[in-house]
């Protein structure tokens, strides 16, 4: 037996005090549970007994197993111990609803005469009410967590066994208080509504993320005791500290995020499905609903109801409604594109010093995603290619209808996949002249297609950028929609679709009264300008909510029958993770090593193979496995295509979150490099007034630690929204929450797997593509 194995086996604690400290509460609880199980079996089912027993077992594992012995040698072992004490043991104990079972487990005379008067003491009740208030619980947990992670306090606990026990007692006590408002053990009364619990957990996750980022990315050992401790398995104190930070970050975040998502899904699903009979008449009168029963409620929007409309905001609204406003945006981007083309063709062929190497890959991509998350499809609204393609229509050529067999997204999907492949294999970010020719060809193709075909064939069926924008806009907060449906019901000209003498209608063939969501909407606002009733606006919409319902949509049909849209969504999601992963140092090193072992002169074939797996095989395999698992776990007879399509679209929030986090890194790191490049290009063009003085360069937007925290927050929000949408979709097929959970479980597992992969990617050293310098450690 190896010395390490002997050390592990000999490190189990057989202290009788610890054993009785775990066994005695269980016996008391068991005795009381047997009594309560007979009198109130619905309140105290068997699973509560198992939860309480598991909590005590976790407590014993934390303080009596080799984790406690190795916590003085490895910070990672210490961190696992803390996770058990703060994130596993407390919620399990509270799920057992231990108050009544422990009281009934005591001898009756002692419980009545000894404990009873103390429990009804008013002062004690006031103290207990204050301690279990969510604000108090959160603050106590935050102070405890931060105070004990301060280096002097942490080192003191490592040096002194007594202080080490005090540290664990503080962690366990604070965690029990923290989880109290979340679990709400019977018979306690909640002091805050259910909807506040996810926010409460997300605030705790933000604190946990901050502390774990400090541990993960610190360039020196924070706790001196680990510098002096003997090292195991050749690990260094700094690498052990980073490992501890990752353990605190990923499993610690999941402990907060998973309950937050489950509680949010349960709350929102219940509020969506439940209509209280006594409130039905009041609701009908207040919101203008005409219904005979909860299942027959149909919305009727009265003229008096007013909703926020971005087009009604002073200055902003008139600018967006005016055709000249859109032309100004298009002309601005067109001039920028020309500058990028000229610098790419004739400027220095160093990506970090060329507009073609910086503006498209650092600024434009990030701002496009920011626009999607902040408003909607802003780029298509100001697209310079549309500005140029309109010239093609002035040639007077005979225009044809787009071939019926190509009226789907498959052509655009192939072009988008080819772009992702070329970007990685040929390093487009590092070749300004290639970027310039890519933009030139984009202009030429848009010009040719729209000169020969009617409508917006290029935008709807071919444009890879447009397909990316359409999918990303599914989670945008604004939607082009009608203000008053009754006005559209009385309209006979349908100018929003057909156009009129002064303004063309919707080129994407979206009939506004039947339009749902942002798919295929370019935010051109032609329908707004064409509507004679001024009945179309930019109205807020809950991000992603459109994917929950499988209604018949104008120009799109039902999403459950659109395999091309599902494939586009999966490509969008998996490409987000692949594109970021290929920037990490470990994957770059793996590709080079594999190419060397295969005797290849370049790693391009390896990269191509890995991209084929990441963009084609992986999404198809995982999505199909999740689809068949959903059907097998519940036996619900839903067509495979329908499950595949609807749940694939529900993953989009996770994809847009990954894209946003990835591009945030580019924008944060490359901000100053972009300004320097613009300065050089402007100086070469004779615009000396844009010169910066020597030594005067813009500072980075965010530090590396702040960037990592923001990336994690974005990914947290993305996975929560993806889980919520998937849950709501599952409720449309299963009437019981248990069946819905089974139906959704495999897709929830896929979303969680992608989330973990995303966190791993954000923790890796990243290549500084297109910038000065080879590698940046997060």
Rg over alpha carbons: 30 Å
How far apart, in Å, are the first and last alpha carbons? 40 Å
The percentage of residues in β strands lies in under 5%
Helix-strand category: mainly alpha
User: In what order do the strands lie side by side in the largest sheet?
Assistant: 1-2
Q: How many alpha or pi helices?
A: 34
Main sheet properties = 2 strands, antiparallel
Spans of 5+ residues with little confidence (pLDDT < 50)? Answer: 270-305, 692-698, 772-778
Shape annotation? globular
The pLDDT mean sits at 83
For the secondary structure, the number of strands is 4
- Could you state the oligomeric state of the chains shown? single chain
Give a nutshell description of this structure.
The protein has 778 residues and is mainly α.
Explain this structure.
The structure is a single chain. The chain contains 34 helices and four strands. The chain has helices at about 5-10, 15-40, 45-65, 65-70, 75-95, 100-105, 110-120, 120-130, 135-150, 150-160, 160-185, 195-215, 225-230, 235-275, 275-285, 315-320, 325-345, 355-375, 380, 385-395, 410-425, 430-450, 455-460, 465-470, 485-490, 495-500, 525-530, 565-580, 585-595, 605-635, 640-650, 650-685, 705-730, 735-765; strands at about 480, 535-540, 765, 775. The longest helix has about 35 residues, at about 235-275.
